[in-house]
Amino acid sequence: MSTFTKTVGAATVGGLMAYFLDPDTGRRRRALVKDRTTNLIKEADRAIGKASRDLSNRARGAVAEARSLLPLPTVSDEVLAEQVRSRIGRVISFPHFLEITARDGVITLRGAALQSEVDKLRSTVASVRHVTSIRNELKTYKEPRDIPGLQQGQVRRRVPAAGWTPAARLAMGVAGGVLALAAAGRRGSLGRAARFAGIGLLARAFTNMHVRELLGISPGRGIHIQKSITIHAPAQKVFHFLSNYQNLPQFMSHLREIRRAGNNTSHWTAAGPAGSTVEWDARIHRYEPNKLLAWKSLPGSTIRTAGILRLERLSGSATRVDLKLNYVPPAGALGHAVASLFGTDPKKAFDDDLNRLKSLLESGKIKGNGAAIPGFTSANQQAWEQAT
Predict the structure, then answer these.
(1) Counting CB atoms within 10 angstroms of each CB, which of 5, 15, 88, 369 has the fewest?
(2) Of 339, 375, 158, 326, residue with least CA distance to 227
(3) Looking at domain 223-386, does it have CATH number 2.40.50.140?
(4) Quick check: pTM over 0.70?
């Protein structure tokens, strides 16, 4: 082992000991890591169960596929319609808006569908055995909000092509673990390569992300957060408060400072794992007063992020706040996993942040103990009360 490797290893061990044995916060940090480890074990157990069910379903599917190759008598129109209906649920966003009938192998499609999903729907129906032709009587729409009778809905997200099935993730995870353990005692470049490959397979199976996404080289899917909350305050006041950068650190625990850096741009400083900080620049690219605010990080930023904030007026001077956030943390998904292990779970933190926002805008105090939120000065309160 080289002197450099020993030095880096010793520095890492020393830093971890100082972090976890700190007399003031070490106990809390150790408890957080213990909780995160317990959660990881539970998630792994659920993933193994999901993978075993996937393997079982795939085995039954293979048997059914083999049987379908055998010559079978024709099915009734009712059975054929049900077979088609069972296939389309995974390829369109709103299958309950479709009416499917069958007659002598001819499938008739009626109802509402999105234009972007019609081709996939037709090819799926055509692939069903005993279907001879398709009659398309659909009414197509560009957006879900255009469909009559649909209150709210989202386009079905497709599983990325790079994603592994639960069964494949289990198999590759086991293979990666075995490879890493087998190479643990081997020295030389071959042993290091085998350990790296094993750990890489484990990380790939655990996160189901491409290698470039894991390392933060490619934005990929990153981390997605979507939260909603109802605040009993007028939308105009809520938007006035949230569109002021300086107000955000008052309820977002991970933010340290936000300052304006130019026209529609700002510089953000946030807390990272183990007491570190990260900084990036962002620009607002959509601004609709009292309705919508959208932003994204500038090229070259440490954290690649984009978000959109929507406000919806409700009855009784209430406002629904919808927040969607996508980001790739430093070192990609691996950096996110390390941060979560050290007690910084962004999804849980955003739940707490939105609850603090609700309490702040409705009462100006932290819910539960009556204490004013740190940084919420009398000047802030006055600006909030005078907002129109």
Answers:
(1) 369
(2) 326
(3) no
(4) no
- State how far the Cα of 247 lies from the Cα of 379, in Å rounded to an integer: 12
Q: Are 180 and 195 in contact (CB under 8 A)?
A: yes
Give the CATH number of domain 79-146; options: 3.30.1340.30, 3.40.50.150, 3.90.870.10, 3.40.50.300: 3.30.1340.30
Tokens read off for 36: 């995160």
List strand residue ranges (DSSP E) for 142-275, in order. Answer: 223-231, 255-262, 265-271
Phi (first) and psi of residue 259, to 5 degrees: -135, 150
For 239-287, the pLDDT digits (tens) are 988 888 778 888 887 788 888 887 788 888 887 655 667 788 899 988 8
Q: For residue 321, what are the contacts with CB-CB under 8 A and spacing of at least 6?
A: 228, 229, 230, 231, 238, 309, 310, 311, 354, 357
Written as one letter, the residue type at 247 is N
- Long-range Cβ contact pairs of 283-286 (< 8 A, separation 24 or more): none
pLDDT in tens, 169-180: 778 888 888 888
